[in-house]
Protein: Nuclear transport factor 2 family protein
Organism: Paucibacter sediminis
Amino acid sequence: MPLTHFSPESSARWSRRIALGLLAIAVSMPTAAAQVDDVRAVEALDIEYQAAVERGDASSMAQILSDDFVLTTGTGKTYSKSELLASARDGVTVYEHQVASSRTVRVWGDTAVVTALLWLKGSSAGKPFDYRLWYSDTYVRFASGWRYVFGQASLPLPGGALQSK
């Protein structure tokens, strides 16, 4: 329909619809500051989690892991929250290093994914280990805050060599 057929009432109605649509879009989009805050919060939580694993601190790990948490390793083995906490408590595995580098955090609304290169060094049942692997950790924002819900770890990198992205 040519613009000459729009009445002033019709134009005003369309203007209101466009304005309301733009307002809805603006309100639904997180601000850049909120996005940065979420990235920082998730990054800090992931650092805290890795440090808790290194210390064998099952209590701190329990606060970060969601109750339905699952970790899948590069071999296909899965671990639940209760299995990871039991492993932290039994002291069979002792970490000298559980340090992540090359960490990237991406946030989409109430979901965040952390990808990092992890260096693990220590002993398990008296046998030493020293290797690096890539991991992706998924966090979800609940009413109580961010929780670690799913982890996936690669196989150890060949030769344990540091390999960046």
Q: What stands out?
A: The helical segments are 8-28, 32-55, 58-64, 81-90.
